[in-house]
Amino acid sequence: MTFRARHLLGIEPLHPTEITELLDTADRYAELNRQGRAPRDVLAGLTQINMFFENSTRTQASFEIAGKRLGADVMNMAMQASSVKKGETLIDTALTLNAMRPDLLVVRHPNSGAVDLLAQKVNCAVLNAGDGRHEHPTQALLDGLTIRRAKGRLHRLSIAICGDIAHSRVARSNIMLLGKMENRIRLIAPPTLMPSGVAEFGVELFDDMEEGLRDVDVVMMLRLQKERMDGGFIPSEREYFHRYGLDAAKLSHARPAAIVMHPGPMNRGVEIDGTIADDINRSVIQEQVEMGVAVRMAAMDLLARNARMGRDETGVMA
C-alpha cells in the first residue's frame, strides 16, 4: 500500500501515487455503491465523530453516509450548541474528544490551520472537511475521480477553474491535485477575485472567460463565497453573470466534449446558467456528489488500515 498517511489534512503532502491509490480505492467503492454491495465490516467497531464548526449539507451528509456504509458508529456533534460557544478552546475540545478515544475525526472549521492544530492533539485519524481558505482535500479528490471517470484519465488535460479563486479552498486543493497529476490549469476570474502570487503554482491566469475557456477539456465553476467577502469584490450579481457566469455562448469556446463541474451549492443565474447545470451531456455535477461518498469511504478505509498497521507494529496507536 503506497498511501501511508496518518491524517488527510490536505493535498499538498500527498504524492501522486498516493492520490492514485486513493482514487483507485474510491473507484471500487463507487461501483460497489451502485450495486448496493458496500462492505459493512470495513469500519465495524470504529467510532467516527463529525465536527462541523461551519454549516454544511453535502460534505457532512456525505461523510456520514460514507461512515455508515462501512459500518462505523457515526456521531454528529452540533458545534453551534457545543462548549466552544461557551468559551472552550479548540485544544480543550480536542483533548476532551481524545479522552473518548474516537478512531476517525472529521472536522470543518472556519479558520485556516485549525484542523492541523487539532490533529496534533489527538491520537486518531483526522480528516479535513474544509478549513478556512486553506484546503478541502476530499472535494479535490472527488473532483479528480469525477474527471478521471468522465475522461478516462487524470493527466495532460486542459482544465479551467473559474470564479471566486481568492476565497476558495476548493480551488486551492484542486490546483495542487491537478498540478501533481500533470494537467494544464487555467484560472479565470475578475482581478478582485484572483489571489496575489497564485501564478507561482504554475497556472495560467485569465480575466476573460472566452479566452480562458478556449479548447479546455474541463470547466470547473466555483461558488461566490459571499460569507468570506468584506467589500465590493463584484459590481453586482447580474454583471458578474454577464462576464463570468457560464452560459452556452461561453461554453462554446471549450472543446465539444468538455465537461462542466461545480462543487455546490450552486447560485443559478449567478455562476452558472441552469440549463447548462442540468445538461446531462455536459454537466457532471450530480456525479460529483455521488463520487463524494465513494472518495470519503476510501479515505476513511485507508486511514483506518494505516492506524491498524501502526498498532500492529508497536502495540499502541501510531
From TrEMBL:
Positions that bind L-aspartate: 86, 169, 223
The entry's keywords: Pyrimidine biosynthesis, Transferase
Pathway entry: Pyrimidine metabolism; UMP biosynthesis via de novo pathway; (S)-dihydroorotate from bicarbonate: step 2/3
MF term (GO), any: amino acid binding
Domain Aspartate/ornithine carbamoyltransferase Asp/Orn-binding intervals: 157-302
Positions contributing to carbamoyl phosphate binding: 58-59, 108, 136, 139, 264-265
Keyword Transferase: yes
EC number(s) stated in the UniProt entry for this protein: 2.1.3.2
SUPFAM superfamilies reported for this sequence: Aspartate/ornithine carbamoyltransferase
Coiled coil location: none
Top-rank lineage group of the source organism: Bacteria
Catalytic activity field: carbamoyl phosphate + L-aspartate = N-carbamoyl-L-aspartate + phosphate + H(+)
All residue ranges annotated as the Aspartate/ornithine carbamoyltransferase carbamoyl-P binding domain in the record: 6-148
Any one cellular-component term (Gene Ontology): cytosol
Enzyme class: transferase
PROSITE patterns cross-referenced by the UniProt entry: CARBAMOYLTRANSFERASE
Pfam families, per the entry: OTCace, OTCace_N
BP GO terms, sorted: 'de novo' pyrimidine nucleobase biosynthetic process; 'de novo' UMP biosynthetic process; amino acid metabolic process
Similarity comment: Belongs to the aspartate/ornithine carbamoyltransferase superfamily. ATCase family.
Biological function: Reversibly catalyzes the transfer of the carbamoyl group from carbamoyl phosphate (CP) to the N(epsilon) atom of ornithine (ORN) to produce L-citrulline. Catalyzes the condensation of carbamoyl phosphate and aspartate to form carbamoyl aspartate and inorganic phosphate, the committed step in the de novo pyrimidine nucleotide biosynthesis pathway.
Quaternary structure, from the entry: Heterododecamer (2C3:3R2) of six catalytic PyrB chains organized as two trimers (C3), and six regulatory PyrI chains organized as three dimers (R2).
HAMAP family hit by this protein: Asp_carb_tr
Name this polypeptide is given: Aspartate carbamoyltransferase
Organism this protein belongs to: Limimaricola cinnabarinus
